[in-house]
Amino acid sequence: MKNWLFLSLMLLMLASCGDEKEVHETEIYQIRAIGTLSTMEYTLGKVIHWDDKGEWYTFGDRKILLSCKAVVKAGVNLGAIKESDIEVKGNQITIQLPPPEIVSFEMDPDLVRTEMTDVNGFRSDFSQVDKSKVLQKGEESIRKDLKKLNILDEAEQNAKIFIIDFYKNLGFEQVIVHETPKDKRNTNVDR
Prior knowledge:
By secondary structure, this protein is of the alpha+beta class. Helix content is about 30%, strand content about 30%. It has helices spanning about 1-15, 25-30, 130-150, 150-170; strands at about 35-50, 60-75, 85-90, 90-95, 100-105, 115-120, 175-180. The strands form 2 sheets. Strands 1, 2, 5 and 6 form a 4-stranded antiparallel β-sheet that branches. Strands 3-4-7 form a 3-stranded mixed β-sheet, with helices on one face.
């Protein structure tokens, strides 16, 4: 009887000490349902100066100064995580993070301003088509600036923090997130 009582107490203690919850496979892959996770947002402004001297046969010149702003979001497409990108060993989970990408690039027309125009001689004023061409140069310039800002690196670091928190909340003690090697990333922000 003593052995049975001792054994019952031991089993009861072991059962009460184990507060670990088992993570189901569906919960592990649930992160893919988030889809694209935007983790960085930049608002970038640009002032574009364009000096249109015209052809050799035109008399006079035109100058315009436009200001614009673009809202750029970067993040990671968590829907692209494959089953082979996740490895579970007990309370440790290892994940291969998809490469970071520019999620959206928006130039709000309400934030485009004509700051100055100077038209002289026999030149016509700037048309909307002309202004659109100048604005396109501004967009190209902002996209070039994105490469200098390392927005993709920051987006990846923020996604990594999110994933670690996500899996620690599921009960994993150790979460290892591997980033996409820089040489295998599509760092093209020109799309």
